Amino acid sequence: MIKDLRKIPHILVAGQTGSGKSVFLNCMLKSLKAPLPDSECKFIIIDPKGTDYDMWESDKHLMCPIVKLDAKMAVHKLHEVSELIKERQQKLQDRKVKNIEEYKKKTNNCDMPYVVVVIDEFADLMTVARKEVEGLVQYITQTSRAVGVHLIIGTQHYDGKTLPGAIKANLPTRIAFYARTSVESRQILGERGAENLLPCADMLFSDAGRAPIRIHTPYID
Length: 221
Ligand SMILES: Nc1ncnc2c1ncn2[C@@H]1O[C@H](COP(=O)(O)OP(=O)(O)O)[C@@H](O)[C@H]1O
Ligand SMILES: [Mg+2]
What we know:
By secondary structure, the protein is of the alpha/beta class.
């Protein structure tokens, strides 16, 4: 299954703990890295757990060191992402172009790599700065597509309290791993189904409300 991230710019990946979310997120990053040199694609990784992305330490594709364990630092990083978006918007305006693709054509592909921001264990950020994070996610998801910044959120908590509708509304591409009940499946996908998946490495991919597609995720170690 191959998808162009530019067409599904922001993704919510949710499911029970141990269902394979972090392994899958690592696979996504690896498959972006394979065809794209670090001059064209950079990653920002926020890993509150602090153990799941060690394979990326000192990788050239990282835009900054992995943000681990410190949810406040992670919120700060989101502020930096919103600043980056503003800088890039200014650059597009200066060149009188509408988006990163036109900018790349005009400048011969220089100084504007795609940036993929992965936030795993997203609920941890919500516990330290709920309103602030909500505002930042809203700003980033609504403005970043044109400037080549993508947001991928992983979470094992997705009930209405932890993950409010305002955030979900900005993440129309949904990936559901195993969920305990059909109610939980609805919280992720807006429909039932994830409760029937295998407990691990099995997911439903739904793009902007389209019928979910079942996919067996690859394994990376
Ligand atoms: N595609 C896969 N194939 C085989 N085993 C997998 C796969 N994805 C995950 N696993 C196993 O499940 C464990 C939990 O996966 P993980 O991604 O950490 O779960 P989560 O992030 O949802 O809590 C992994 O350590 C690995 O052993
Ligand atoms: Mg995980």
